[in-house]
Amino acid sequence: MTTTSRHDAWHAGTSYDQYMGRWSRRVAPRFLDWLGMPKGLDWVEIGCGTGALSAEILARAPATLMSVDPSEGFLAQARANVADPRAVFRLGDAQALPIDTASSDVTVSGLVLNFVPDKAQALAEMQRVTRPGGAIGFYVWDYAGGGLEFVREFWRVAVELDPAAADLMEDKRFPYCTREGVAGLARSGGLAQAEVEAIEVPTVFADFDDYWLPFTLGAGPAPGYCDILAAGALQRLKEGLAASLPREADGAIHLQARAWAVRAPVR
Length: 267
Ligand SMILES: C[S@@+](CC[C@H](N)C(=O)[O-])C[C@H]1O[C@@H](n2cnc3c(N)ncnc32)[C@H](O)[C@@H]1O
What we know:
Blueprint: H1 13-35, E1 42-46, H2 52-58, E2 64-69, H3 72-81, E3 87-91, E4 104-110, H4 119-129, E5 130-141, H5 149-161, H6 170-173, H7 179-188, E6 195-205, H8 208-212, H9 221-228, H10 231-244, E7 253-265
Parallel strand pairs: 1-2, 1-4, 2-3, 4-5
Antiparallel strand pairs: 5-7, 6-7
Helix pairs in contact: 1-2, 5-10
């Protein structure tokens, strides 16, 4: 299984927003608060998806923003979500950015690096496009630490029913998505002064349908897995989750999501 598995199914912008975008939108402002960059800078963002982090960057008065993603579907959704003349959304890959050397003050990436096959190359590219004296920041979910609880619960039940699905679990696929793992990734990628911070947000689902529906929409690794299940297997997975998720008195499902954020100066 490669990290660019077909189960990743990164294409459908509106589905992504319902599945992950609604939670990534909560992490983005917390990450930017921690990054603490001044106004009026040139920003580059890698793997913008539907624009969750782009929108937050634009809310903090940058001079320019160049956001890159390899998915045309996501870029179309990002352009629709974030209509701002300071922002340019461009097709591109983290490993070979279509961006001039030393053209950015701050280069960031939210929930992307674990999906990039050559992470060292992606970090080298982030440094290449960033001016000396600038900064790099990125974050990934705490997959390996179990900190993305709604996804962890999904796979717990999925693997009970279908042990072969264990290969698809993000905690196995992305073992470096821990505090120590991202620190090591940053250091080995040339960011010697990298600092790491936990960002935790609540993920509250109004009821079981609110939890389940996004898994059936096809965008992301777990929804990609649901997509290939036969109807009976999908129903058993749904029932298994419905029976085991913790519920509040009003039927809501309260879970947490933790991301590991990294920031580093560029020399
Ligand atoms: C989990 S989404 C995150 C999207 C957005 N940054 C957010 O916070 O909601 C992962 C994103 O990484 C992008 N991606 C995957 N492989 C990539 C690569 N090699 N280079 C750049 N982006 C990539 C996907 O197209 C997708 O938009």
